[in-house]
Amino acid sequence: MSFVQVIEFDTQREEDVQRLMDEWRETTAGESTATHTTLTREHGRPGHYVTIVQFPSYEEAMRNSRLPETDEMSRRMQELCDGPPRFLDLDVIRDEDL
């Protein structure tokens, strides 16, 4: 069963967040267990973002979370946010192409 982590946050520093995401992707190449990520910005709420990260399983997501680079990214991400991010850990129970 695949797994999705949703991270919801507010920031006025979108470009810095994007650079941090790029840096994390480069430093974890070959180690990260994430299979896909999507960064979204809420249309009617400037400064509000949601990141969706997909993993093969909960266990792989937890392995990814234990990477030192992920820990460092999380610390730096919190510095860029206007408050604490909100995390949702979701088991995918249905996934269809429409």
TrEMBL record:
Among SUPFAM superfamilies, the record links this protein to: Dimeric alpha+beta barrel
Concerning Gene3D superfamilies, the annotation shows: 3.30.70.100
Q: Which GO terms describe its molecular function?
A: monooxygenase activity
> Which residue ranges are recorded for the region named Disordered?
61-81
According to the UniProt entry, which residue ranges have a biased composition of type Basic and acidic residues?
A: 61-79
InterPro entries per the record?
Answer: Dimeric_a/b-barrel
Keyword set includes ATP-binding: no
Entry keywords, A to Z: Monooxygenase, Oxidoreductase
Q: Which domain of life is it from?
A: Bacteria
What protein name does the entry list?
Answer: Quinol monooxygenase YgiN
Q: Which organism is it from?
A: Planomonospora venezuelensis
